[in-house]
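Re: beginner question about structure tokens

> Can someone show what the tokenized structure looks like for a real chain? I only ever see the sequence side.

Sure, here's an example I had lying around. Input first:
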Amino acid sequence: MSAAYLLLSFGGPEAPEEVLPFLRRVTAGRGIPDERLAAVGEHYFRFGGRSPINDANRRLLADLRAELDRRGDPTPLLWGNRNAPPFLADTFRAAAAAGIEEVRVVLTSAWRCYSSCRQYREDLAAAQAAAGTTLAVTKVGRLAEHRSFPAAWADRLDEAVRPLLETGLRPHLLYVTHSIPDAMDAASGDPRAGGHAYATAQQELAAALTAGLSASTGVELDGELVYSSRSGPPTQPWLEPDVNDRLEELAGAGITEVALIPIGFISDHMEVVYDLDVEAAETCGRLGLQMVRVPTVGTHPVFVAGLADLLHAPASICPPGCCANLRGPRPALCGSDGAP
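And the corresponding structure tokens:
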């Protein structure tokens, strides 16, 4: 059977005129008025109307292609997005036209929750239907559960923070991830395991990274998980504390240095460069906090090698009820409770 690999990502606009249509696609069905979307669009216009995510994916694709070639694997490597060109359905059509029969998918989303996994699987099913293809689609395991993910983050953290420690500074470590509704976190992961997989797994990684850096440097460091990018109504509980609120508290407690480590994100896309490099940086400046922002894993060689490992590993099948869609069931590929 002729096969290909597929990098499936969120997507982002690449020109000012693409911003509003992109945001409409992202929020489709939620009834959000264009006036609110235009306000969010200002984040993109601040950077020329171009999200960094597609360029980040192009670099990742190039490095992953080089790693696969080094291993003697000539399998074609494709790219599809959920919300911006190249759209997933178009990628499926092109793959079928090229004679490809099987596609193995890796998501650029590391964590367990509806938005990070199940929604991607629903989009795979919708794209398959829209493309009218019969491709055999499978999904590799979650990135965060492969040993390469914490290893790459440990290296990024060490490179950014060790120089500060060597000068006598002792930054408080804030591991930042995207906030989600409390109910979505409660429904994340295998329901037989009790849910809350999203927050729990990231809290565990944050604790392990803090302990590892403390042990390797001989400096006892404090770290915790915080959240960014809240977008829901004020009446809906979302995961807290917000990174900016926590910065206020730390400054009030006498902390003078912080490191922001965006473990919730693979690459420096808009919700990293705006929420951290702009908003959180402004908060730190106002509070007199010295801030270092640790880079995302991006194209770290250990992370890229881990992606290649996952592409060569057995497929991952999500169990029934995993990361439930709280708005109602939709067909989803690569799971035992959705479409085949």
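Each token stands for a local structural state, so reading them left to right follows the chain. Strands lie at 3-9, 77-81, 102-107, 136-139, 172-178, 223-228, 257-261, 290-293.
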